[in-house]
User: Which sequence fits this backbone?
């Protein structure tokens, strides 16, 4: 058993009396690909929001490498090696695709120079390689707001990868991506994660994607963990099949 | 292509006062306002409209007057210290103001600048009240010049500074910091998730913009020979926004194009009618309707199509 990179202990969160997390504890080990599944409104995205400092739990704590990050800002957590791709892509819409990438790379490099240009040869090459990875190399010079939704999603993932994180949190990475692009994207993404030794936690609704790529699955329902284990174990659980997957 | 166009434009500006000496003062003032409008344009990149930047313009001009009264009598030193004064005022005001967005940012800038205006106008014993303070002619490299020669030196110095400072601002806007500034307008959440401190990006921009306005204020103080509270009045701040929008925020030259256009238009219009504001207003309507990128959009579009 490797050490947990991220731990959440006894999380309690409620919105207007509705519990999104009711004393939940989870951990993700270094090198794992943990999938979180569950019905809409179960609190999956809330978990990502807590783990990245966007919202604070009513009680409980989040540990990164054993250090408490519960009260840290998203910026401070990002600088500790946690990146996030969003359910609704968060991009710099007025800027070109390549500029979105280069700004993420510059942020990682700490190149806060007010004199050196953003567009450096090495940075551009690195940005293009990442765009190539997610199949957006041909869109490099487009304004990102002009991309179709699926491609915006891919760019959001590429931006997160540009931060060279140790832990990547993906919120429904394949939603909005066409059926034809879905598995090639996941193959490329998982390949990149393995190559770069990035641990990943992803929220996903596509059970085929979960079955194929997750090393462990956690089923989240009404603020609690309903089941947990390898994909084949979880998908054979009768309660999960009935309440989450929707088959008896 | 861009270098050639810039070189030709600067050459024309340099020669104009030789042909028409009365233009020297107008052009010096236009460049001074261009610096301040550039400061406004920097913040516009982040989607922040400041209706209070005349405060920094005035703070710097008052800084020159106070320093001159204290015995500092060197043009270079006065310029440097006055710009630093504006930057310091910008840093102090910015710490408070960058927490706000949209109309709140605009109105708070206006409010702070009007407090500054009121202080300048009412503290008669310190600032001379509405009479203002004189800005004496300083020494240039230790040499005292007569007024006509000093004003000529000031004009050509302003022209050189326009080029050098313009290039520096362009580099800043092309840097990661400059791109992060534009990104504030698009998506602050993503910036935070990239580990970029939005407050620092905005504070740096605010100080840069205040320093630019300060440089303009110092030049204007020297050109006019006096600083009065009206330098900080809200209509002066509105005038700077008008220049920035007229010129266009797509590139650094926009602010100077807007300032030159407006000053020359003003000079021409007042010879025709007392209602020169009507002509300026109609021009602004035409520009907003047909040139959403401002005058600079005309040049940048031509450049893009010639590539």
Assistant:
């Amino acid at each position: 058993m490797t050490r947990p990179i991220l731990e959440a202990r006894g999380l309690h969160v409620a919105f207007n009396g509705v519990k999104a997390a009711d004393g939940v504890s989870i951990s993700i080990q270094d090198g794992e690909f943990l999938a979180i599944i569950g019905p809409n409104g179960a609190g999956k995205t809330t978990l990502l929001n807590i783990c990245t400092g966007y919202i604070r739990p009513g009680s409980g704590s989040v540990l990164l490498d054993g250090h408490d990050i519960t009260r840290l800002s998203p910026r401070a957590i990002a600088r500790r090696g946690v990146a996030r791709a969003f359910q609704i892509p968060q991009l710099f819409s007025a800027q070109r695709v390549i500029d979105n990438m280069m700004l993420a790379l510059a942020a990682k490099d700490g190149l806060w120079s007010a004199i050196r240009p953003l567009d450096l040869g090495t940075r551009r090459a690195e940005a293009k390689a990442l765009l190539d990875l997610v199949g957006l190399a041909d869109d490099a010079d487009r304004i990102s707001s002009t991309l179709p939704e699926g491609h915006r999603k891919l760019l959001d993932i590429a931006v997160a990868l540009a931060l060279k994180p140790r832990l990547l949190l993906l919120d429904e990475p394949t939603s909005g991506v066409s059926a034809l692009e879905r598995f090639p994207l996941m193959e490329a993404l998982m390949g990149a994660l393995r190559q770069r030794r990035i641990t990943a936690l992803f929220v996903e609704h596509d059970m085929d994607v979960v079955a194929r790529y997750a090393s462990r699955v956690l089923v989240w329902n009404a603020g609690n963990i309903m089941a947990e284990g390898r994909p084949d174990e979880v998908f054979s659980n009768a309660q999960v099949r009935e309440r989450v997957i929707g088959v008896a | 292509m861009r270098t050639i166009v810039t070189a030709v434009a600067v050459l024309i500006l340099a020669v104009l006062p030789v042909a028409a000496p009365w233009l020297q003062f107008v052009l010096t003032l236009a460049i001074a306002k261009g610096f301040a409008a550039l400061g406004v344009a920097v913040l516009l990149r982040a989607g922040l409209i400041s209706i209070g930047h005349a405060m920094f313009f005035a703070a710097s001009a008052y800084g020159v007057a106070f320093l001159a009264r204290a015995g500092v009598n060197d043009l270079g030193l006065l310029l440097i210290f006055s710009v630093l004064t504006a930057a310091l005022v910008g840093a102090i005001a910015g710490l408070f103001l960058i927490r706000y967005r949209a109309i709140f940012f605009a109105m708070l800038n206006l409010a702070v600048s009007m407090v500054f205006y009121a202080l300048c106008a009412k503290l008669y014993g310190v600032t001379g009240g509405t009479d203002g303070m004189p800005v004496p002619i300083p020494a240039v490299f230790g040499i005292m010049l007569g007024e006509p020669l000093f004003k000529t030196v000031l004009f050509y110095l302003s022209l050189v500074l326009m080029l050098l400072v313009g290039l520096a601002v362009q580099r800043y806007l092309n840097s990661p910091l400059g791109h992060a500034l534009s990104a504030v307008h698009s998506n602050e959440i993503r910036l935070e998730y990239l580990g970029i401190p939005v407050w620092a990006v905005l504070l740096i921009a605010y100080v840069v913009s205040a320093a630019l306005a300060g440089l303009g204020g110092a030049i204007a103080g020297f050109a006019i020979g006096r600083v009065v509270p009206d330098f900080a009045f809200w209509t002066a701040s509105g005038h700077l926004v008008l220049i920035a929008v007229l010129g266009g925020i797509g590139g650094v030259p926009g602010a100077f194009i807007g300032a030159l256009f407006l000053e020359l238009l003003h000079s021409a219009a007042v010879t025709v009618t007392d209602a020169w504001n009507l002509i300026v207003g109609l021009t602004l309507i035409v520009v907003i309707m047909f040139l959403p990128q401002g005058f600079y959009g005309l040049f940048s579009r031509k450049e893009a199509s010639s590539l």
